[in-house]
Every structure is written in C-alpha cells, then in structure tokens.
User: Which sequence fits this backbone?
C-alpha cells in the first residue's frame, strides 16, 4: 500500500508543473494527465486488494512466499494480470494511452514550458514509475 501511496503523490507534481508554467496549454495537459492517472489508479488499487486478500497479507514478501508454494498468481488470476498490465500502461502514459501528452494539439502535455534539467527530471520520474509498475507486476503475479 505504501508503494501506491507514494506513486499517487506524483499526481500533485503533474498538476503543479502545469499550473506553475503560467500558460493554459500546459495546465490543460496536466489536467488531462491527472484525470487519467486517477481513474486507472483506482483499478490498480482494487487489483492489489484482490491479490492481497488471496495471499492474506499486504506484505510483498508474503505474496511472493504464497507463489513459491503453489503456482504463480498470474496463472490463477490471468484476467487480473492482463488488466493490471493494461492499467499500468495507462498509468505510465505508454502507447496507446499516451493521450494526455497529445503531441498534435498540446505539443508535449504538461511539460511544454520545461527544458534542460527540469525536463530531464520529468523524464526520469516517468521512467522510474515504469520500473516500479513492472516490479509490482512481477511481485504480484509472476512469483517475484
């Protein structure tokens, strides 16, 4: 639960980055990105709750131990694993869910006004979120 609580704080960074650029287009991009992240984060939360009920614990080590004794949860809950993968694609703004950036109309979404190190930090945060989602997917469904 701590992992998803910390990842939910990224929404504030996106809203503040769009608002602080003092332009309406980055602010619109940040609102679109925030709406998408919030909607898919609810689905991810429900999927984690289902897996944790099956494992009888929110502890990631306990979830891995449950999968060591039997089969991977991705085999039993294949539909949930597919939904988790799709939601993680949407959460990290990967194709085909990269609509908040909308290159054709908003240039680059919420980070229009940023360049150099600030843009690099946005990219670093986005790729760190992708790594966290992949790790969470492996721990919850594929044996850790």
Assistant:
């Amino acid at each position: 639960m701590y992992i998803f609580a910390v990842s939910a704080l990224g929404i504030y960074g996106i809203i503040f980055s769009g608002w602080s650029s003092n332009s309406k287009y980055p602010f619109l991009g940040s609102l679109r990105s925030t709406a998408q992240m919030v909607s898919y984060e609810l689905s991810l939360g429900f999927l984690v709750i289902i897996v944790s009920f099956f494992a009888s614990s929110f502890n990631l080590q306990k979830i891995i131990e449950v999968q060591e004794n039997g089969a991977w949860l991705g085999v039993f809950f294949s539909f949930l694993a597919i939904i988790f993968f799709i939601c993680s694609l949407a959460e990290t703004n990967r194709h085909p869910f990269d609509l908040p950036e909308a290159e054709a109309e908003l240039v680059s979404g919420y980070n229009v006004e940023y360049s150099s190190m600030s843009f690099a930090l946005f990219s670093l945060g986005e790729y760190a979120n992708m790594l966290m989602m992949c790790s969470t997917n492996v721990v919850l469904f594929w044996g850790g």
